[in-house]
Design goal:
It is a single chain. The protein has 484 residues and is an alpha+beta fold. It is built from 14 helices and 20 strands. The strands form six sheets. It has a six-stranded mixed sheet, with helices on both faces. A four-stranded antiparallel sheet has the order 13-15-10-16. Strands 5-6-20 form a three-stranded antiparallel sheet. A hairpin with a 2-residue loop joins β5 (132-134) and β6 (137-139). α3 packs antiparallel against α5 and α6 runs parallel beside α13 (418-426). It is elongated and about 85 Å long. Mean pLDDT is 94; it is low at 477-484.
């Protein structure tokens, strides 16, 4: 992986000159051992929001997080939930508020306290719910995703509250969700019910990753998603392949020919009308990508442009399921119908409805040999792109660079965080920042999930710097500080 280390982000002197950066860093360092100890206690709670697991652990987890926020000095702390569509209870969310002083903005700090199931215990080198420190990393389920995000929020808030005292006028709302790993089924309903309670000028989502150990990142783009089912039909019923094969091609063969039209000769998505962009701030060298993805020797990579642009800012189409007989159940028959489900990742800025229409048009326009084809639309999700010139993003990039001592890079994620679209829609005026504490070795969702403790401390310092900068008027274009 490579990046350009030049051109660190700067903020106006009136924002940074009076910031007690050394005191904030010292406060974080002074309390870091207790921060890790509290994180260790959170890891021990197996709060999993999937229906197959004991939901009482989620309640225990929520209560533990609420107690930590109260101990940090926030008095207004609630555990809230809304019902799922089926009437069952949603995951418990912790919402805590420190009101803003007159004229100061409010920052919402998001993370989630539920975790992924541990999976096969044999693949873990230690008990997934007993946090263990080894070689500067803390191992355990949720140690990185996302209980470290919770502790980063709490520890940064505590440092700023301690150092700035009565001068800390920024309002802070903690929003710690309890069902993110289960797909946030009640997230939209929760936002709509508690819209006013969760309103803020800046929303910090601590659920992403840094570029690598020692190099911080602000996640500035997420791809959107559409999917659907393509069906190809050639006859009204199955017929004998010996009696009719030759003049007539079977449905799976024609489906394969249709699928082949989705990409050009270089492997780029060939559907007309889709947004695609180049990304040049950082790149992923091919050898590292091949090793990380487990690409077999001799398999060529697809597409054009940098690898990061192919991952983050260009569309990517995959066939994720097919309805054809298995080899074991095959017979000498020309099949009348075959189906495939496709998943199309969308570049930031792409309208999902337009992308869905483009897929449907492509399918109809490329019907092989006049076969009857159809496309049944499935789910659609919005992409996300940060305005990196906005005051909050500039402040975040500055804070990350100051904390680590190297320029923060702007990275994307090839996947999607669906609830970001809900935040954008419910709070269109809020600036959304996607940060995180993970690194490429964290193995979130996998066995031996871990957190790099050195970078964890730097992440806390960076968030303290961000809160301090906002308190000092970094959002002045939108929220003038009193007397400025």
């Amino acid at each position: 992986m490579t990046h350009n280390d030049q051109g660190a982000t700067a903020l106006p002197a009136k924002v940074t000159d009076n910031l007690p950066l050394d005191e904030l860093r010292h406060s974080v360092a002074e309390n870091f051992s207790s921060t890790v100890a509290e994180l260790t206690k959170l890891v021990a709670i197996p709060g999993i929001a999937w229906d197959a697991f004991d939901a009482t652990h989620l309640d225990t987890s929520a209560r533990a997080v609420a107690a930590l926020i109260r101990a940090a000095g926030v008095e207004d702390v609630q555990i809230l939930r809304v019902a799922k569509d089926d009437g069952g209870p949603g995951g418990p969310a912790v919402v805590a508020r420190k009101a803003a002083a007159p004229g100061f903005p409010t920052v919402v700090l998001y993370a989630h306290h539920d975790v992924q199931p541990p999976g096969d215990a044999q693949l873990w080198d230690s008990d997934p719910f007993v946090a263990q420190e080894r070689a500067g990393r803390l191992y355990g389920r949720g140690a990185a995703d996302d209980k470290a995000g919770i502790m980063a929020h709490i520890a940064a808030f505590s440092a700023v509250e301690k150092v700035l005292g009565a001068d800390f006028g920024v309002g802070v709302t903690f929003f710690i969700e309890g069902e993110e790993e289960a797909g946030s089924p009640t997230f939209r309903t929760f936002l709509e019910k508690y819209r006013a309670l969760l309103a803020g000028d800046v929303i910090v989502v601590a659920d992403s990753a840094n570029w690598q150990v020692g190099i911080p990142a602000l996640t500035t783009s997420l791809r959107g998603l559409v999917d659907g089912v393509v069906e190809v039909s050639v006859t009204s019923h199955a017929v004998h392949s010996g009696m009719f094969g030759g003049p007539l091609l079977d449905a799976p063969t024609l489906l394969a020919r249709l699928i082949a039209t989705f990409h050009d000769e270089q492997g780029s998505v060939a559907i007309e009308g889709l947004v695609r962009n180049e990304h040049s701030d950082v790149d992923y060298d091919e050898a590292t990508f091949r090793a990380d993805a487990g690409v077999l020797d001799g398999v060529q990579l697809a597409g054009r442009g940098t690898i990061t642009s192919r991952l983050w800012t260009q569309p990517a189409l995959s066939v994720i399921g097919m309805d054809v007989p298995s080899v074991e159940m095959s017979s000498n028959t020309l099949l009348p119908t075959a189906r495939a489900k496709i998943s199309l990742r969308l570049a930031p800025g792409q309208d999902p409805a337009a992308a869905m229409a483009a897929v449907a048009e492509h399918v109809q326009s490329n019907a092989p040999f006049g076969a009857k084809v159809s496309f049944v639309p499935g789910e659609a999700g919005q992409s996300f792109a940060t305005d990196t010139q906005a005051p909050a993003a500039q402040a975040a990039l500055w804070a990350l660079g100051e904390s680590w001592g190297v320029r923060a890079v702007e990275t994307g994620i090839g996947g999607s965080i669906p609830f970001i679209a809900d935040l954008k829609e419910i709070y269109p005026g809020a600036q959304i920042l996607v940060t995180g504490v993970e690194d490429p070795d964290s193995r979130a969702h996998s066995a031996n999930e871990s957190l790099h403790l050195g970078d964890f401390e730097k992440a806390i310092v960076a968030q303290a710097y961000l809160l301090g900068a906002i308190n000092n008027g970094a959002l002045a274009e939108h929220n003038p500080r009193p007397g400025s």
